Amino acid sequence: MKYDPIDASLFIANRKKFMKRMKPKSVAVFNSNDVYPISADSTMPFQQHRDIFYLSGVDQEESILLLFPDALKKENREILFVRETNDHIAVWEGEKLSKEQGTKVSGIKNVQWLSAFEKVFFEQMTEAETIYFNTNEHYRQAVETQTREDRFIISCKEKFPAHAVAKSNPILQEIRGVKEPQEIALMQKACDITEKGFRRILQFTRPGVWEYELEAEFLHEFIRNRSRG
Asked: Which CATH architecture has domain 8-176?
């Protein structure tokens, strides 16, 4: 992870706000984005789905967040599922979250391997009456591929046709409109890095300097400050 770690208290607060607005006996599920292929043996750089990151801080593929405020067992009210890692994956793909690291990042005590999701989800759905789906409803959306969320929704409707359906998006839009102090500080930090980038390229801007050269200097400042740019 390139950027500075974000304190888990932010994600704990975000989940509390979301769950407070959920219907009684309802489950909400949030999936990571897919890793998209470029060729037979390479992929595009992974970009996490903004919603699961907002609620958990987990910046890793093949992760699932399950929220069930009315679960009979207290430990099942927040569950994070992450991909089980090993030495081979660490060498070829990079370090992945352990269960302990998942708890540290998200503040969620119940972290399980992704392989346990289907069993646990079925058990939770036997207690629930409503399922919240995280659909992309932005008026400018331009999605031409079936996402991980799309596949989950299709599968869920087939397996649990009698459950009521609700939308996560209206809740997320409402709670995201008011920023936590920690979020404001992070936004200010992003603005400060951007300012540094512009001030840096001013030092290199002169006749004969190409645009790509200025781009390199601009990106230099972002990377130097542990930002993805």
From this structure: 3-Layer(aba) Sandwich (3.40)
